[in-house]
């Protein structure tokens, strides 16, 4: 069974691209996952994921690169939510509650104008392994390099920002720059994950790994590394299980992520394991 899986990875480019993309998506979302959970901005990631639907729909309608349109939409959504909440004292949930259905509605309207070709809407919502191309893999690789360089250069600032914004300001951290850079990174991570997990399930990549690692990690660095490792393992295992049982990979990966959480939580309760 495993030999057949490895043989098919070597033989079929779509499966090879899916594995590579899943690993790269896991690395990309894993590194931002810790910041998302510690800062309690999970709903911004979820909102950005759903906002991509509008960008994808308009990209398909205009005949342009819909991934690029999705990235632009996700970034605009995340920045808009942050702007309205930080500058106008509106609640984050209220702003997301306004902008999310707006983006989804505009997406549905755009799709209604598309004649002839009917997009794979289910693939957009729940992921489609066949949609992953070599160009997507290269794009994810570049995004990973940028994200890791960003975290390496601004690790101290991200550490303070993630735990306590007031303390970060006291130590001279450029809060505005770090905040919006993180939001852009989260948005692009979401867009990069859409083809694997889909719009609806992509939030799991941003939240579950860090929630799991938070239960056993002793440090911010440990939390990031454990999140990344668990996301990669869950993605590879999810694709393998979906290959064997002929199931959609995105939902299976999410189930694997949750199983990791349950196992880790149980082990911690039994043995008080921490890293």
Automatic annotation (TrEMBL):
Example GO biological process term?
Answer: response to zinc ion
Q: Name one GO cellular component term.
A: ATP-binding cassette (ABC) transporter complex
Q: Which InterPro entries match?
A: ABC_BtuC-like, ABC_TroCD
Membrane spanning residue stretches: 18-38, 66-84, 96-117, 137-159, 171-190, 224-245, 251-271
Q: Which UniProt keywords apply?
A: Membrane, Transmembrane, Transmembrane helix, Transport
Q: How does it sit in the membrane?
A: Multi-pass membrane protein
Keyword Membrane applies:
yes
Does the keyword Membrane belong to this entry? yes
Stored Pfam families:
ABC-3
Where does the record say this protein resides?
Cell membrane; Membrane
Its predominant location is membrane
Q: Name the family the entry cites.
A: Belongs to the ABC-3 integral membrane protein family.
> What is the protein's name according to its record?
ABC-type Mn2+/Zn2+ transport system, permease component
């Amino acid at each position: 069974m495993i030999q057949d899986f490895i043989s098919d990875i070597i033989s079929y480019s779509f499966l090879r691209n899916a594995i590579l993309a899943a690993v790269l998506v896991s690395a990309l979302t894993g590194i931002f996952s810790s910041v998302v959970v510690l800062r309690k901005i999970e709903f911004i990631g979820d909102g950005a994921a759903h906002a991509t639907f509008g960008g994808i729909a308009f990209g398909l309608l205009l005949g342009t690169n819909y991934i690029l349109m999705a990235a632009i939409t996700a970034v605009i959504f995340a920045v808009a939510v942050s702007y309205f909440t930080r500058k106008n004292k509106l609640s984050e949930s209220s702003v997301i509650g306004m902008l999310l259905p707006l983006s989804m509605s505009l997406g549905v309207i755009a799709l209604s104008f598309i004649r002839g070709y009917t997009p794979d809407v289910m693939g957009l919502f729940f992921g489609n392994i066949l949609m992953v191309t070599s160009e997507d893999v290269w794009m994810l690789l570049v995004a990973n390099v940028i994200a890791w360089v960003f975290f390496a250069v601004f690790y101290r600032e991200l550490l303070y920002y993630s735990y306590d914004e007031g303390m970060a300001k006291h130590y001279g951290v450029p809060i505005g720059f770090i905040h919006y850079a993180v939001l852009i990174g989260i948005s692009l991570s979401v867009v990069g994950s859409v083809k694997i997990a889909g719009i609806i399930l992509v939030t799991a990549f941003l939240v579950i790994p860090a929630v799991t690692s938070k239960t056993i990690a002793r440090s911010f660095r440990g939390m990031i590394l454990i999140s990344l490792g668990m996301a990669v393992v869950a993605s590879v295992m999810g694709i393998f299980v979906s290959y064997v049982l002929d199931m959609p990979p995105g939902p299976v990966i999410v189930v694997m992520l949750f199983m990791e959480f349950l196992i880790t939580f149980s082990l911690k309760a039994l043995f008080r394991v921490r890293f």
